[in-house]
Every structure is written in C-alpha cells, then in structure tokens.
Hints:
The complex is a heterodimer.
Chain A: E1 5-8, E2 15-19, E3 22-29, H1 33-45, H2 47-53, H3 55-58, H4 71-80, H5 94-106, E4 113-118, E5 121-126, E6 131-135, E7 142-147, E8 154-158, E9 172-177, H6 180-193, E10 202-206, H7 207-210, E11 220-225, H8 230-249, E12 255-260, E13 263-267, E14 273-275
Antiparallel strand pairs in A: 1-2, 2-3, 3-4, 4-5, 5-8, 6-7, 7-14, 8-9, 9-12, 10-11, 12-13
Helix pairs in contact in A: 1-5, 4-5, 4-6, 5-6, 6-8
Chain B: E1 4-6, E2 9-11, E3 20-21, E4 32-35, E5 38-41, E6 45-49, E7 59-61, E8 76-78, E9 95-101, E10 104-115, E11 118-125, E12 136-139, E13 142-151, E14 154-160, H1 162-166, H2 170-184, E15 189-193, E16 198-201, E17 208-209, E18 212-213, H3 222-233, E19 239-243, E20 248-250, H4 255-258, E21 272-273, E22 278-280, E23 315-320, E24 326-331, E25 337-340, H5 347-355, E26 362-370, H6 372-378, H7 382-390, E27 395-398, E28 401-402, E29 404-405, E30 411-416, E31 426-428, E32 432-442, H8 443-448, E33 457-458, H9 459-465, E34 473-476
Parallel strand pairs in B: 6-34, 9-33, 19-23
Antiparallel strand pairs in B: 1-2, 2-3, 4-5, 6-8, 7-34, 9-10, 10-32, 11-14, 11-26, 12-13, 12-15, 13-14, 15-16, 16-17, 17-18, 19-20, 20-22, 21-22, 23-24, 24-25, 26-30, 27-28, 27-32, 29-30, 31-32
Helix pairs in contact in B: 6-7
Amino acid sequence: MQAAQAAMLPDGRRLHLHHGPIDLIVEAWGAGREDAYRRAATRFENLLQELVDELPALRRPLVPGAEFQGAVARRMAAAVRPHGDVFVTPMAAVAGAVADEIVSEMAGAEIAKAYVNNGGDAAFHLMPGERTEAALAAEVAGRIVIAADDPHRGLASSGWRGRSHSLGIADAVSVVAETAAAADVAATLIANAIDLPGHAAIRRQPASELAPDSDLGDRLVTVEVGALTAEETAMALARGVGSAEDFLARSLIGGALLTLNRELRLVGAGAPFETEERTLVHA
Amino acid sequence: MMTEVKDGKVRCDACPVMCYIADGKAGACDRYANEGGKIIRCDPLTILDRTLEAGGEVVPFLQSDWDGRVFRGDEVFVTAIGAGTTYPDYKPAPFIVSREVEGADFVTVVSEAIFSYCGAKIKIDTDRHLGAETATVRADGEAVGHVTTGEYGSQMLSLGGVHHLTGGSKKEGRVTCQTLMDLCNKQAVELSIDGGSTVVVEAGRAPIIDGKPEHRMRVGCGSATIGMFASQWKGLVDEVVVVDDHITGVVSEHQAGKVLDWPDTGIDIKGRRSTPGRYFQVADPGLGWGGTDIEDPLVILGEWNPKKGARPGLSVLMVSTTGEQSAYYVLDEALTPVLKEMPRQLEPTVDLIAENCEPALSTVLFMGGAGGSLRSGVTRNPVKLTRSVHDLRTRVSCGGAPAYVWPGGGITIMADVTEMPDNSFGYVPTPAIVAPIEFTLRRDDYKALGGHDGAVRLLADILAEGGEYGDDVRAMAPPLGDVFPHPEED
C-alpha cells in the first residue's frame, strides 16, 4: 500500500500532497513558508487513515449524539449538522474539510496568506490586508475575490460532471462560506436541487453501480444531460436558487453562483463573484 | 497488487480507502480501475513488446511479477503512454530511455505532451455528399471543425484546432476536446454537418452516413469506370452509362468506346459535357446513385435521337461507380426506356465493379505541434532537436506509431491512431489533448544536441523501477505489428 506523498511542484513554489484519492495543491506566502509546508505535510501523513478508520459512519447520515474521533471527521459532521432536513452524509463535506484542516495547520503569524486547493474545493488563510483570487471553473468565465475583512474562508464547487456523483443536473454550483467544509456541503445540496425529475433527456444510474462504496447507495445519480429548453433550464435553476436562498437566510453560506446551460444565477448580493457576463441575473 | 473479490467487485489496496471497484470502473482516486477483474493503473507506462503476439492480452507489468527477462532493445519500445508529463517541461522528460538496437546505443525520450495546437484529420471513404466545403462540423451541437477539400473517393474533415479548443465558449472547448480524444482513442463519434449529413466516424471502421453504413469506395469516377470495363460490355449491351456525381461516363461517346468501334446510340445526357463521353453535374450531390441525389437514373437522360442511332430494342445498362445501384432498360417503339430484368450475362460486369471497390473506412490522423517547452524536456537547446528531426537523425513517434513530420519550421506531426495502443490519448481541463510522443535518436547524437544525458536510464532499470509517476508498467504487442521507429543507420 502506498504511503502519503509530499513533493514540491516543478515551479518550486507550491506543495503537492497526495494520498489515494486526495490531491492537494498548497501554497503559502510569508517568512514561515517552509515551516508551514512541513507542518502541512506532517499533518497530512496520517490524515487519510484517520478518515478511513471512521469511514462507515461517515458514509451514513448523522445519527443524533454521534461522536467522531478525527478532527477532519468532526469538521465534516459539523458541516452537515445544519442540514438535517435532507438526505446528506458527512462525505459531502470531505474535500472541504480536508482543505480546512490543512490550512488551519499552516496558519500562523509568519504566514501572510495561504490556500489549500483540494480538487477545486479550497480553504484560505488571510492575514489583515491580504486578499485572494480564484478563477471559476464554470461554463461562464469569472473569478472570486476574497479579502481578509470578508468572513469567508472556504470555496467549493459541485456539478454532475465533477468527480463526485450528483443527484442534480447543474453544470456547476460555486459557493463561498466561512469554511470550505460548509461550502462543500452547500454546493452539493444546491447542485442536487437543480433538477428536472422525470425529464426524458436526463439519464440516471444508481450510484452503487458506478461506485459500490458510494455514500449515495442506490440513489439515482446523473450520468447524462441532453438538450433542455430555456424554460426547463430556468425551472431547474429556480429550484437551486430556492435552496441557496434558504442557506443564505440561515447564514450557512455567503453566496452562490449557479450555472446550467450557460444560464447563470447569483444568490447573495454581497457575494464576491465577478463574471465576464454582463447579463448576470441576480435571482 | 493484492486484491480480493466480492460480488464481482474487486477491492483495491493501493491506498487505505480500499475501494470496492466494479468491472470497468475506476476507484475514488480515478487512478486505479477494475479491468476484467484485475486492478490496473488507469495510465500505466506502456511498453510495446514485439515478442507478444498482436492482439494478445495486455498484461500488467509489475516489478514483482517480472520474470527477470532481459529485453533486447529491438524487441521492446517504451512508449510515452502513461509516462506522465513534465509540462511545462522545466526538467527532463519523464523517461529518457537508453536501449541497444543492433549494437548501436539509442536513446528514446518519452513524454505525454500537452497539445493546445492539435486536431484530427478525418478521411471518410464515400462519394456521398456529406456537406459543402467549409461547412461547420458539430458534435453535441458545438462547432468542432469543418468540411475541408475532398480527396479521390473520400470526404475530408478537419477537426479541433486551437480556435475550437480555447477560442470559443467553454462548452465548445470541452466538447471539442472530448471529440478529439474519443476519435483518437478509436471510439465511435457522431458528427453532424451544417446543411449536410450526420456521420458516425470510428477509426478503422466503415462510416455510418445518415444511419446507413457505407460499404464500398467507388472503383473510380464514372469516366474511369468506363475506361476500365468498356471491353467487358462490348457485345453484351448497346449503351452503358456510369452515373457519378463527379464525372458521369457514357461508353458510346467515350474514348474507350471509340477505340472499340462502339456504335452511336443517339443518347442525350443532361449535364455539362467535359470531353466526349464525360459529363459533369448531371445532378446535385446527395445520397443516391453514385453520390448524386437521384434515385431514378432516367432523370439524367434527355430525348433519344433516332438520327444518331436510337432505335426500338436498343439496350442500356445504367450503373453507379460502386455497382451498388444498377438497372437495365430497352427502348420501346416510342424510344422510351422501359425497365427490364438484367440479362444474366451482364450481371458479372456489375459484380466486377463492386468487387474492385475497396471497403469504405473512416481514418483518423492525429495532428499536433510539439512546442517550445516540450522540446526543452528533451534537450537544453530546443532548436537543435527541431533540426535533428528534420535531418531524420531523430525519429518521432506517437505511442510507438511512426509520425509524419511536416517540412518547414517546428515539429508538426501526424500519426495514424489505429497504429497506437487503445486509449493512448487523454486531456487536461485547459482544455488540451494529452498525447504520447517519443523521440528516438543515437545516443552520441543526443549528447551532441545538448540532451539531458545525465537523465538517461537503461531500459531494464525503467522496467524494474518505473518513473516518478509510479512504477506500473504494462507490456503489449504493437497494434499493427512491426512499427518500431528506428533512426537512420547512416
């Protein structure tokens, strides 16, 4: 079995942490960078094993009173706890929670700014006066700018084409939240909500057929989305907007950008999204 | 790798997650997959092994079960498939392999290169009109290329290129990338042409045009068909018309008929006469007879002229350039052609046309330009590599398939994807295509052009240890047999 690997990328600036399904790209600025990278790599070494130790429980919806041992597992549970009204397991927060854990390990006085990018789900550390920019990996080009006085330190995206299976048909849902774990869960649930149940152009397959271990079990996940009319696109997006507005009202997220068929919806007037499309519709 | 099986699923133990993986699927990491009950690395370094019979099983080539056989350099060729990439090539390419070929010490530099400037040239053997030149070719509704100039017996498409990959919308780029990858990986792809047909293209297979599989390439244009078969028709029939969208031929007027003293028949062909017995534009292009739009061949005929030889009882064979369509007529008292059963003695002449047609295929050539950073993975002095390639001292191959190098500047290559192992191509989200590329040259030449000689490793060492992207190696037979690239022996 392969052990966790840590290597500097060829550019000499960024650290690559890899173990099994986890690939993290890490970058830090400041005098303490080397130390921070060492702390990140040390923390990463046993991180996957800690998750695996509690994996069966993490793949099930939370049961009241459940306690997790690992720090990452506790972050995952905390992120899904406010969403008790829908089907979700702590696994919906795994990518974000890993990013949060590593970035918190790196944070310190000698680090002005740092990020951990876990396959598009990212956690940031920003000292006063610092800001970070992320490019949006969506159908519509755009970016997200987060400044230190902004409360958001997490960014995550979800969509049916992504690595995780989705119950919905969103091309991409990007969410900012206080933590990457919170953003990860919210993006997953908003992307699930963007859907047209029973539509003939949407092909679905039980998640268990695609990945026997999936936390989604036999639930149908989207494997193909055919042509949709403008009305259908708007209808599906409206469902996602409803879910995102609910999360915003409950302060679970700072904002969300939803895309389907090159149509966009932005939820959260103060959200730090900038897109190239001038026709941006504020839902 | 140790694996255990449960309900047809295989448990992978590459990492602590220990995923159960269904057949044909990948684990959570997308790096390891279940192929027929065995865990394989999705992108193993591929070694073409001449000692394995073509079509033989692809065996995982792991250090632990390597039988210790020492490969001779001319038996195996390390391809770039699964070699990984060092893009943007700040350091030497992943594998710089030293192997011995017939006593000389050769170096093969292998890398999976990221091509932003790349595409596929598609040749579709058919005379059917698929769409106008420059018409947009679409996949999944997105523009991925265009119809380019047709060739003899084939329609040509030019797909991909940097404008579709990165110059349009994100979806256009993603669909173009997927289309190129699928075509180059020898998978079937449905393409629709604006104002024209829908065609399913799969490298090395017959094209399917508007739902109908194409069987044959035409034996030649209508005029060439007359030239080839005129003597076989002499004495069996009074007139032969070979219907073709390009040049329709008429035996009584054609030079090939004249040398046989073929009598005039008073026939009149609607079309633009080129030279005697050869007519352009008898109909519009289409999916009917000989690549025209006609289903009834009589529509291309005018009045029969009795002053020039037309008479009741005169027999006429009309046939297409592939022999797929044919009909036999006899003029009645009013000099109107009446459809009759084909006389038995004429049937072999129609069959002969069909027999002389080659099977219609779609062929896919990958085309790309190896840019600056890729070359610097090979040598510290990139322009010397370009010169060495153009001097034929360095041979370029893609997944072991010999690549044609275009003259002129740069290293612009074309390679036939059917000569490469299956699924040789990948992509990065840029979007751009990841293709294997190998440079093979003599080791002394490699040193002379400023190669990373310190990074050269012996073949046996790579087989035993692998590279930095994992130690998984698979061995397979070259898809088309003996295709190993060798530099000139001068």
